[in-house]
Amino acid sequence: MERKNGKSIYTIAECAVLIALSISVSFFEIKVGALGGSVDFVMIPLFIICYRNGVKYGMLSCFTFGLLYCLVGGKFGYGLPSVLLDYILAYTVCGVAGFFKGKSAFIEVSVLLGCICRFVIHFISGVTLYAISTATEVGGIVTSNAVLFSFIYNGLYMLPNTVVAIAVMSLFRIPLTKLQNKI
């Protein structure tokens, strides 16, 4: 069963299953700091979508995950602007990892690119939306500088998330390459 654009229903079903897997693993997280942020495995299935299906399906799937993650997890931050930046847009930009679709030699680069894009959105959110809470301690540093606060706060959980995602996707390189070649 082919769609007009040549992508099969199989691809759509695969994306749906991997989004559901991301939602499922989102309940298993390690909190980092008292203010929020966590280390988890939610980006792994999303990066698999990107690797297998490219930017379009990657960004659409990451957008869908961000929306569902916010709704299912009850994470609303500081209202609609926070939802749009910290969940929907931050996860959507992870889909840029799909620029290296099917290129196993660039799997770490694609994951790093997706994680950097997500960090940038969280950083912007921290500087703009969360600037009201910057006169506090983060990572053992007391600061009222919104830029420094956002950089440290978001770095505290995004750096471990990036390392975990790169490590796991590196381990998946051979199985993903074999799977890509068969389908």
Describe the SSE topology.
Elements: H1 9-25, E1 30-31, E2 38-39, H2 43-73, H3 80-92, H4 107-128, E3 136-138, E4 141-143, H5 146-171, H6 173-182
Antiparallel strand pairs: 1-2, 3-4
Feature tags:
183 residues; mainly alpha; two-stranded antiparallel ribbon; two-stranded antiparallel sheet; 6 helices; 4 strands; 5% strand
Polypeptide structure, described:
The chain is mainly alpha-helical and 183 residues long. Helices cover 65% and strands 5% of the residues. It is built from 6 helices and 4 strands; from the N terminus they run H-E-E-H-H-H-E-E-H-H. It has helices at residues 9-25, 43-73, 80-92, 107-128, 146-171, 173-182; strands at 30-31, 38-39, 136-138, 141-143. A two-stranded antiparallel sheet has the order 1-2. Strand 1 and strand 2 (38-39) form a beta hairpin. The longest helix is centred in the N-terminal third of the chain and has 31 residues, at 43-73. The radius of gyration is 17 Å and the shape is globular. The two termini are 15 Å apart. The model has no long low-confidence stretch (mean pLDDT 85).
Mean pLDDT across all amino acids: 85
Q: What portion of the residues fall into strands of 2 or more residues?
A: 5-15%
Number of helices: 6
- Rg, Cα atoms, Å: 17 Å
Structural class: mainly alpha
Distance between the termini: 15 Å
Largest sheet: 2 strands, antiparallel
Q: Can you give the helix content as a percent range?
A: 55-70%
* Counted beta strands: 4
Shape: globular
Spatial strand order of the main sheet: 1-2
- Unreliable stretches (pLDDT < 50, length at least 5) are none
Q: Order of helices and strands, N to C?
A: HEEHHHEEHH
